[in-house]
Description:
The chain is an alpha/beta fold. The chain has helices spanning 2-21, 24-54, 141-150, 168-176, 190-194, 200-217, 236-245, 265-275, 289-304; strands at residues 65-67, 127-136, 156-159, 180-183, 223-224, 248-249, 254-255, 280-286, 307-309, 319-321. Residues 91-92, 134-135, 184, 188, 227 line the site of zinc ion.
Amino acid sequence: MVISMMMSNNNQMETRKKIRKRPRKKFRQPIILLALVLSSVALIMSAIVGISQINFKSVKTNSASVVIPKLAGGNEKAQLPDQIPTEAEPDSESTQPSKNNHEPQNSKDSPAGTNEPSNAPKAAQPKVAYLTFDDGPSKYTDDIVAILNEHGIHATFFVIGNQIKGYEGSIKAASEQGNYIGLHSMTHNKKILYNSGSSANFLKEFKKVQGMVEDITGTAPWLIRAPYGSKPQIGKEFRNDIVKAGFKMWDWTIDSKDWKYTGKPDKIMQEVKRQVHRDVEVILMHEKEQTVETLPQIIQYLTDKGYAFAVYKPEQHFSVNFAGDSRL
Ligand SMILES: [Zn+2]
């Protein structure tokens, strides 16, 4: 080993000597190439280290399980949540997700490899909060986007198809300003979406709203949020159908319960403070007046707690669903 290293060192020295002997003009290009190669290697290495830290751990929870198979660098690099959300009420008019889900959540379902080194200091990873707003578009969409812009951050919106008419401009603006427009069905009607037990109506609605958003933004979104959350109304077969249709589905790790605290921004703040503790948080909010009121405070609080804000990016997708289904 040592010998081979020495040999390789010798070889390198020889190579360097050879390089030095070359006339200056010829020698510049290889140096630039070498620098490019080295910086690429450094980038790849740092990506590997980042990924290996967060790869394939999953957190089984009584609400959302967050699986982060791969997150790219920069501000949106993130670690796995370390604990479970103790409660999460799905959406407005919602039902509580059932207590525990024992479906296996294994790394084998994750797309990337698992055999990378994992020795980077964890402290270097920033905490990341994904703000998500359901049940729009609405008369509050522009206000929410304006607040996000003031803070130089972006968020993820899950829109209802039947509400889009008249708000096409708001959706387009939100999208153009760097926010992600996700899907939240056409009707938000529990009976239509779930009562049959079949995924047919659900998928039909999501395909329709997907087309509507694509017409407005030019991009078809594939991230959906199930009205009332995925649990308990969406079982395994149902999820299989969602996977087959090509959608990804996010629940959340924090329910701000903003939908029920009309006129009570303090209560919303309390909810958020009580539930924030993971390295990656996906925060459920709605397009409501009290949410607009509380939003600057929420952003400030999370910033003070060391969170960076991220918007959903398909190429950096990770799973956040109550079933712990890493396919979604
Ligand atoms: Zn909703």
